[in-house]
Amino acid sequence: MRLTAVQRLQPPARNAMAPARLGVDLAIRLPEAGLFLAGRLTDPHRLIDTVTLRSTAGFRHRLDDVWAWTCAADPLADTDDGAILAKVPQIDSAVGFVVLVPAIAARRPSQRYFLEITRRDGESAVEPIHFDDRPPAMLLRAVLDRVEAGDPDIERIIGGHVGPAVRALAAHRPTNLRPLLRLAFGENAGAPRLSAIVPLLEPRGDLDVNLACFTVDPDLSDVEFIVVTRRDDVVPVVAMLRRFGGFYRLRGCVIADETIADTAEAIQLGAREAAADALLVLAPAVYPKEKGWLSRLVQALDALPEDGLVSPTLLYEDNSIRYAGSGAAPEAVRTPPHTAPRFAGYPRSWAADGGTMPTAAASLDCILARRQTLLDLGHFAHRFVGAAWAHADFAMRCRALGRRCYWASGVALYALDGDAEPAASDDAADLVDGWLFAQAWRLAWPLAGRGGSVRR
What's the pTM value of the predicted model, to 2 decimals? Predict the structure, then answer.
């Protein structure tokens, strides 16, 4: 963190009046959105009058009347730079700030920027701005670290500054049309009848046992398994599948890439590599309940009156319902449709076999669709920080492109994990994703247009 001392009459340790200090610890140039700045200000005696961003080309933009205060912890508090403030006597806790300067400021990369800090008595100081050139994914995390979910001004922080910055960074995360690695396992027995995409974004030591549960069903004897994982996890996954694949009569491939962000992107990557026309998305924690389920699910897909996607009933280990279709979210609840599951936690009998029926959203834990259907949905990853809202975005894209979601109530499988992609809770990221979802679908989903961010 670079700290500018506005009052420089005496060294801080000898000065009876604590100096005002302002530091910018994160500066990002976003050509589509502007300049994002985050830092901390210490001014217990209100010495600072104005803070202005200036450039060598004559650009001027006053910051102190547009920035948003944050209560997030100092990300540099444990570093030597962060300790500078703590050593200054009689200084109250520094206050964080974030600000997004209009996009015009980022369109001339040759300009050099600096802060002009003017004191009430007319004295001033300048501080050069040094822009961070780390990869977008790392910068995105750094921006989120400036957000505290419980901040009283969270709507303004996200809606006016952090949200647009995250949206611009997410749009520039790298995306490969082809995987970095493609490694086959099992015997090639001709063209598969169906390709099963297994997004494996968290290490699982029981994947071979899971897949073995499917191979005892004759319906899956001509199924190609496509396991999609991250580059760092590919070695143990390939070793395990090549060791047990022949014994369990498994065949398929492992595709890996270091840029995979979430389940949604893994599905897109797997769909491009699939050899069959029918694609089954299968979360690693989904297990068969009985034989013959795949044939019934394929029959449900073939019988649809239109191009769409089908999900079965998903059960917890005690046979209570995890997914039995999704209803529209209640008006009083600011949540996307996928977060209003029908009968979740109720006994299986509450979702008796009623055939195949339309539903608001399919479950990404288990979906059967045509390959072209998933490809037509386009690249629906990278717009969000986490996985949950990407799932909601997938449902909305289905609607926007005229692809309806269906629930095959008579087909049941176990889904033992709570999420298709386990992840640590991140309330700040969830709030930012809610804002991104609202901005993307505010015309299609009425509640999305209300307020600065969407709370779950």
Answer: 0.73
